[in-house]
Amino acid sequence: MNSLQELFQKKNKNLCSVFFTAGFPQLNDTTTIIKSLEANNVDFIEVGLPYSDPLADGPTIQHSSQVALNNGINLDIIFDQLKSIKDEVNTPLVLMGYLNQVLKYGEERFCEQCVACGIDTVILPDLPMLEYENHYKELFAKYGLSNVFLITPQTSEERIRKIDLLTESFIYVVASASITGAKGEISQGQIDYFERIKAMNLKSKLIVGFGISNKTTFNTVCEYANGAIIGSAFIRFLESKGVEKIDEFVAEILH
Prior knowledge:
This protein is of the alpha/beta class. 47% of the residues lie in helices and 15% in strands.
C-alpha cells in the first residue's frame, strides 16, 4: 500500500492537494514550501519538475518553471532537496513532470531516486497509456511507483474504464479541456462532466485539477470528487506574498 492509498483509507473527501514548482520562487524554497504546506494540513503535495517545454501547463506555471530553471534547478538538486526532508515530512509527495525528463535522466535512475526520496506516485501527463502498459507498468512496479492518469471532458467511457483498472492511487480529473490556470467559477458544463464521471462508480479516487483557484471552486468540485488540486493560484500567491505567508493561502481555501 502506497502513501496515497494509506491517506485515502483515513480520509476520502475534501482532500486538498497543492501543486508548486520546485526551485521557485528561489532555488532552495522547495523544502520550506513542503514543510509549510504540511504544517497547514494540506493532504498531499504535488512537486512540479520544471521543464522548458511543458505541454499541459498554462502561463503561470510555465513562468514558474522558467524562473526555477534560471535559478539553476535540475532533477539532481530536486532529488537532493527531497532526500534532505524525507525523515521530517509525513505528507505524501507526488512528482509531476514530463516523460522526456525521465528519458533524459535515465528511467531506472529516475525510479531509484524516487524511492530514495520516499516518492511512490508520479504524474507524467504525456506518458501514453500503451507505452505505460508495454513498458512502464512493469518498471514502476519494480520500484513500487504508481502512475496517475489524466482524463478530460473528451475522454471516452471506454478509456476511463481502462484507466480505472490501471489506477493504483487516483485519477486526475482535468476540469476542462485546456491548460492549467484559473478559469473563474465552475460552469454548468463542467458540473455535468463531473456528474457523469461520478455516476460511473469507478473504483479509483477522483481528484480534480486545472482551474481550481479558491474556496468556492474547491468546495464545488469536492461535491463530485474526493478532492482537488490547486496550482496556478498558489504559484501566483508565492510570487506576490512569498513563502512566509503560505498559512494565509491554505486558510483561505480550507477555513
